[in-house]
Amino acid sequence: MSTQNMLENEQETSYVPREKGLIRRDKILDAATDVFCQNGYDAASLQEIMAMAGGSLATLYRLFGNKEGLFQAVIERNSESMIKKLASPLMQGKDPIEVLHTMGSNFIDLLSSPMVGAIHRLLIAESGRNPKLREIFVKTAPERNLRVVADYLQSLVNSGYLQLDDSYMAAQQLLSMFKGNYHMRSVLGDTVVINEHEKNQYVKSAVSLFLRGCATAKLT
Question: 37, 65, 93 — which closes off a domain?
């Protein structure tokens, strides 16, 4: 057997178990998200989660440690999805107005989704009884998302495009503008349907208002 074939075989045998492990992990997280959102954190049963996902409790404990670790993994996966949506336009090297418009459109799509609304309802219901869950969420999701946007805004400051005293504060203000009442409607259980024209007009207006307050060049 050639060296190349040996390497390919080694890569194949090492890749398959890893892929199976990721699939198993995703199935558990899918089931956990459903059970947490339907039953709440305290009432969520790890046995029910594994019955839905398939597998043993030993697998769950090995992958996530305990119930709190599983909840954190659910929030982290949700946060990763949001970060990808926020960061993807930043990698394209486009005009800042176009980047911010894409960012805003993606942010509205995410925050108005039924899944995000359900997770946020869960957090509102549980955080009073379990402050630890609130800490996990704040450090994992909003903080990381804000940092992505703040870093991009700071890059525009460094290039001379924007004038900001505090990029992190500006990121909070910009994302709050994008949220509008779409996110609150989703958290309250409303099915938020936004046509593309309405969304584009809303985001265009938010970006324009934001840039008029901090852009160094006159905008057309």
Answer: 65
Angle at 131 between CA 79 and CA 75, to 5 degrees: 15
CA nearest neighbour of 155 among 218, 107, 89: 89
Q: What is the pTM of this model?
A: 0.74
Q: What is the secondary structure of 146-189 as a DSSP string?
A: HHHHHHHHHHHHHTTSB--S-HHHHHHHHHHHHHTTHHHHHHTT
* 56 and 14 housed in the same domain: yes
Q: Looking at the structure, do residues 176 and 158 belong to the same domain, yes or no?
A: yes
Q: For residue 53, give its domain range.
A: 1-65
Instruction: Give the pLDDT confidence of 65-118 residue by residue, as tens digits.
Output: 999 899 889 888 887 877 777 776 666 667 899 999 999 998 888 888 888 888
